[in-house]
C-alpha cells in the first residue's frame, strides 16, 4: 500500500470545533493506482490533498505514505518527502518566471539532487515542449505552462503525484490534451495519481473515484 489515510480529522484555527473540515476520512491507494476525488465546493478536497502532501498537519488519525507516518515527521522530513516521494501540481501553474522551460523542468529534480538530463529531455519530448525549452513562462500558453508544471513534478520520479484541478484554468479542449498526456506519463512510469477535480467526466477515466461530502467520504 503506497498511501493509507486513516480516520483523519482536520479543523482550521477558528473553525467550528463541532464541524471539522475533514471528519473521520479514510482511504487507500496502491502503487501505480489512479484515484479521483470529487465533491462540492468547500467540502475539503484541497485540504485532504494538502495533508497527503505533508503541506499541513491534522488533528487526529494518521496518514502513511510509502511506509512513513506523516504525524511523526519534522519539517525537514516533510520537505524531503515533497522533494522525492510525492510531487504536486496545482491549478495555478506556479512556474518560476525567471527560469526557462528547461530550467523549470529540472528545478525540483535539481533540488532533490537527482537531475537527470536524459529524463528531462524525455519529458520535454513527451509533453511536446521540446521546441520551447529556451522560452520563459510569460511567453507560454496556459496549456504549455501546465505541461511544464507536470513535467517538473514527474522529473523527480515521484511515487505519488497529487494534482489539484490541474486542468481547471484551461479550456476544455486544451485541458483534455494536457490531461491525456499526464495520464499517459503517469501510467507509463508507474506513478500513483491522486487527482482532485470537479469534472465527473475526468474522474471517470481514473481507476477509482471517491466522493467527499460534508467532510466525509460518501
Ligand atoms: N487555511 C485555511 N484556514 C481556514 N479555513 C480554511 C483554510 N483553507 C480552507 N479553509 C476552509 O476549509 C473548507 C474546505 O476548503 P477546501 O479548499 O479544502 O475545499 P475544496 O473542496 O477543495 O473546495 P473547492 O472545490 O472550492 O476548491 C472551506 O470552508 C474553506 O473555507
TrEMBL record:
A Pfam cross-reference name? ABC_tran
Q: Which SMART domains match?
A: AAA (SM00382)
Instruction: For this UniProt record, give its keywords in alphabetical order, as a comma-separated list.
Output: ATP-binding, Nucleotide-binding, Transport
GO MF terms here are:
ATP binding
Give all residue intervals belonging to the ABC transporter domain: 3-218
Q: Which domain of life does the UniProt lineage start with?
A: Bacteria
**Protein's UniProt name:** ABC transporter ATP-binding protein
In its UniProt entry, the species of origin is given as: Sedimentitalea todarodis
